[in-house]
Amino acid sequence: MLQEDYIMRIIQQSMRLTAKLMGFQDPEEPFYILELIDQACTTALNIDPKLLDDWTEQALRSWMHDSSLHPAQIRLLVEILDKKAEMAARAEEAFQEQAFLQKTIIALEYLNDVEQTFSLERQARIHRLKERLNSD
Asked: Within 13 A of 21's CA, how many CA atoms are on the CB side?
């Protein structure tokens, strides 16, 4: 019972933070985005936000596997990584953008493995991200 309550609370926090991240479009507010990302990482994912910058692709895979993340947490991670890729693109940091695009793809593919249902939308998103990655 306590574990279910904890998971539901994490899912609710993740949904609120994801909604904020996805709805945020103002390029004048990068510090607010970083604050939301930091909050999401520490509260919903229980990690230091700087790890997202430092982790290799293999380290990200290992952490996701070892952490036994709930699918809602993985979806939040996807949105965070995607937002970081977008911010790197705006700052014209091509190497960082590519790294975050690749990490986003890895998280989406991991979500495919974890979730029981096939998602055409997720597959299309992976395809778009790969195209964006290969166009740079």
From this structure: 27
Long-range CB pairs of 49-56 (<8 Å, 24+ gap) are 52/80, 52/81, 52/84, 52/100, 52/103, 53/84, 53/96, 55/103
Q: How far apart are the first and last CA of the chain?
A: 48
* 106-135 pLDDT, tens digit each: 999 999 999 888 899 999 999 999 999 888
**Weakest-pLDDT range from 8-17, 21-30, 46-55:** 21-30
Q: Which of 2, 87, 1 is nearest to 37 (CA)?
A: 87
Interior angle at CA 87, CA 101 and CA 66, nearest 5: 45
Per the CB < 8 A criterion, the answer to whether 41 and 47 are in contact is yes
Q: Does position 16 have pLDDT exceeding 70, yes or no?
A: no
Q: Following DSSP, what letter does each residue of 75-123 receive, concatenated?
A: HHHHHHHHHHHHHHHHTT-HHHHHHHHHHHHHHHHHHHHHSSS--HHHH
